[in-house]
Amino acid sequence: MRRSTFCGSAAHALDRRAFLGGAGAAGAALAADMTALNALAAPAVNKDLKKTQKRVILLWLAGGASQLETWDPKPGASTGGPFRSIQTDVPGLRISELMPKMAARMKTTCVIRGLNTKNGDHGSAAMTMMRGRRDEAALRYPDLGAVVAREFGLADSKVPDYVTFYTQTEGRGMAPGAPGFLGARYAPMELTTNNYPEFIKKLDGITDLDHLERGELRSLLGKQFEKGRNSETMNSQNEAYQRVRGIMASEKLFDVTQEPQKVRDRYGPTQFAEQTLIARRLVEAGVPFVRVGRAWWDSHGQNFETHQEMVPELDHVMATLLDDLGERGMLDDVMVMTLAEFGRTPSINASLGRDHFASAWSCTISGAGIKRGSVYGKSDPKGQTVVAEEVDAGSLFATVYSALGLDPNKNYYVGSRPVPLVNPGVEAIKALVS
């Protein structure tokens, strides 16, 4: 059995976890029963979704996957390791031999090889790579999931806005979802023990009438408390609670046994595969943002064994997801990202591991409005520095927002202060937005 290589960094404190999010489903055909996924086959519904909503599945490679064993191999270099590179279906683009299935599907995908994010600490780097910038002393920024939920969710939706799976224990507290100043209305539904949100299931001993009356009592007490008070935090909490009954109707979306066995077999039996299949079910039903965390890539020791085990699983699951979305006509509307808090060092340590490295690493974006079959950024022959088309966290997020059809300069307001989606002066990479 491969021994744990958890580096022991202290987990950052969790923001207060909110019970609900809200997500957009389009069309009255879905309003009655959001568990009926085949309703999305109706042309009118698909047309409405394409007009109003993009969705995102983020495959979060927690701990920091190695770019050298995935998207930016350096075979033959002293830093390259034992694995070869292989040609993809994009002329001139080669990736690790551990990813043969994605090598045949790179025409769907953009590889960004020039990330330089300058932060090698698990906790703060993960927060930065979920937000695109660091929090200020007096201002907590929303993460990508909260922004996508805010922009593409509908107020009367019967599915969550934002769902995050992170069921491994290593590093879980280092990358919590967080709505920041957007408030509890856009906080994630976090699944940390299994694939099913047990807390939305009505207890067997509570009747529908009991549930209704309890909700009415909470509403009455809440209105009494609100008298003479005006608070954005209180308003956000109330909006979240008001959606409880609708959210409870979405529980079957998390039940992977609702899928045909051939589809489940196609994704595979691993937890990561099942969670990714549930993510597809969720976005198909209108959930704007789903993050699937796969841990633990922090390979300070036995880097090559770790990646020989984990990369083929990523290769299979990612390729299956892209095929599935394409066959369902969803890839133009659903963005799939692979991202981590950083990459791994080109140097190989005494434990045959690679350490934290944020100076020249890689991520991918597929589908939605991104330019497919493209490569942006270049590292030197040993993978130590970015030598062309450097990308920081801010420009990555500006590019993602632009590809989703959002203006990165759009302002939110915290009191009277305008706060754009990215920091002032940060621009999208126009060459990557189709």
Account of the 3D structure:
Helices cover 29% and strands 16% of the residues. It has 434 residues and is of the alpha/beta class. It has one domain: Alkaline Phosphatase, subunit A (3-Layer(aba) Sandwich). An 8-stranded mixed β-sheet has the order 6-5-7-1-8-11-4-12, sandwiched between helices. It has a two-stranded antiparallel sheet with strand order 2-3. The longest helix has 25 residues. The protein is globular, with a radius of gyration of 21 Å. The N and C termini lie far apart (45 Å). 48% of the residues are buried.
Describe the protein's topology.
Blueprint: H1 43-52, E1 55-62, E2 85-87, E3 94-96, H2 100-103, E4 109-115, H3 122-131, H4 144-152, E5 162-165, E6 189-191, H5 208-226, H6 232-241, H7 244-248, H8 261-267, H9 271-284, E7 289-295, H10 303-327, E8 334-339, E9 343-344, E10 356-357, E11 361-367, E12 374-376, E13 378-379, E14 386-388, H11 393-403, E15 411-414, E16 417-420
Parallel strand pairs: 1-7, 1-8, 4-12, 5-6, 5-7
Antiparallel strand pairs: 2-3, 4-11, 8-11, 9-10, 13-14, 15-16
